[in-house]
């Protein structure tokens, strides 16, 4: 099982502001011409995908299509209710964004297994959607990334059923398609039961996912090497005292309007019709070219 070690990241592509805006416009045009997909086309949304694709508009467009195809095929794994419908789930504070940022300017997203209670696997996936959608509406987060801190204390046998190969495949595919250039997962307070779960899951994960996961057990100084201490609660050896996890949810409610609207985004018809749509557009374009030449 890999111990934590420091990674170095590739720096942001050296593009001028004008060049980046040109790539944004290029990606926006691709989406607007793709009539079976209804999604946001504002600059910050498009920047999410461009930033994690080295500002290649075509690669970003392919990533968008794959992510929303996954949503079309597996809707329960994605946000599908209004924010106030998650009120009871949010009160359990199983997943929260910590205030502030780590020493590399990244948001820290805390997942606590001990507070999951009656939550289902789909509840957990949809909570991730809520938080990531909100965090990725920040330029600083797009540029610096997100750290997921997983506290495995309280992990129970009933959660092992979540690790069925089909579930692992969907979860890992979703993680690979998220518009994040930089994401790490740091696991603390793991146990022998957790080690059993890891041995079941790790062979099913891609190497890119494995490379993002680090295990610290109860070695908090090791965790601090990556995140620093200032952003962490005292229970993880940090400097933050008397944190009220319930108050963290206020961050989501500040973004309620666009979070509610995000549930409407996706493919408007079966993505398998993609080829037919492209053929029809090509035929129309070819007809116009012929007509203009007559």
Question: Which features characterize this protein?
Answer:
7 strands, single chain, 14 helices, alpha/beta, disordered N terminus, two-stranded antiparallel ribbon, disordered C terminus, 294 residues, globular, 5-stranded mixed β-sheet
Structure description:
With 294 residues, this protein is an alpha/beta fold. The protein has helices at residues 17-32, 43-51, 57-73, 87-91, 121-135, 139-144, 165-177, 192-201, 207-210, 220-227, 245-248, 250-253, 256-262, 274-293, and strands at residues 37-38, 95-97, 107-112, 146-151, 183-188, 213-217, 266-267. The strands form two sheets. Strands 2-3-4-5-6 form a five-stranded mixed sheet, sandwiched between helices. Strands 1-7 form a two-stranded antiparallel sheet. Strand 4, helix 7 and strand 5 (183-188) form a beta-alpha-beta unit.
The helix content is: 40-55%
| Contiguous uncertain segments of 5+ residues | 1-11, 273-277, 286-294
Number of strands: 7
- Spell out the helices and strands N to C: HEHHHEEHHEHEHHEHHHHEH
Main β-sheet description: 5 strands, mixed
Query: What amount of the residues lies in strands?
Result: 5-15%
Which whole number gives the mean pLDDT? 86
Strand order of the largest sheet: 2-3-4-5-6
Shape descriptor reads globular
Structural class: alpha/beta
Distance between the termini: 69 Å
Overall radius of gyration: 21 Å
Helix count equals 14
């Amino acid at each position: 099982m890999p111990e934590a070690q420091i990674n170095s990241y590739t720096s942001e592509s050296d593009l001028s502001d004008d060049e980046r805006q040109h790539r944004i416009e290029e990606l926006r045009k691709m989406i607007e011409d793709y009539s079976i997909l209804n999604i946001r086309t504002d600059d910050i949304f498009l920047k999410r995908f461009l930033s994690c694709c080295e500002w290649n508009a075509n690669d970003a467009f392919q990533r968008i299509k794959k992510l929303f195809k996954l949503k079309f095929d597996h809707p329960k794994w994605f946000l599908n209710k209004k924010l106030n419908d998650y009120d009871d789930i949010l009160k359990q504070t199983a997943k929260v964004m910590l205030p502030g940022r780590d020493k590399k300017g990244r948001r820290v997203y805390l997942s606590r297994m001990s507070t999951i209670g009656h939550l289902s696997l789909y509840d957990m996936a949809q909570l991730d959607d809520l938080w990531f959608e909100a965090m990725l509406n920040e330029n600083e987060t797009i540029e610096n990334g997100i750290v997921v801190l997983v506290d495995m204390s309280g992990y129970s046998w009933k959660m092992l059923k979540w690790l069925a190969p089909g579930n692992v495949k969907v979860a890992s595919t979703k993680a690979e398609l998220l518009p994040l250039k930089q994401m790490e997962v740091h696991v603390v307070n793991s146990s022998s039961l957790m080690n059993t779960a890891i041995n079941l899951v790790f062979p099913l994960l891609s190497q890119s996912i494995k490379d993002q996961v680090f295990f610290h057990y109860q070695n908090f100084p090791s965790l601090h090497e990556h995140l620093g201490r200032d952003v962490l609660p005292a229970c993880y050896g940090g400097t933050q005292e008397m944190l009220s996890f319930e108050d963290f949810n206020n961050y989501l409610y500040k973004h309620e309007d666009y979070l509610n609207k995000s549930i409407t985004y996706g493919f408007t018809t079966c993505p398998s019709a993609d080829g037919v749509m492209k053929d029809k557009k090509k035929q129309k374009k070819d007809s116009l070219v012929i007509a203009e030449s007559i």
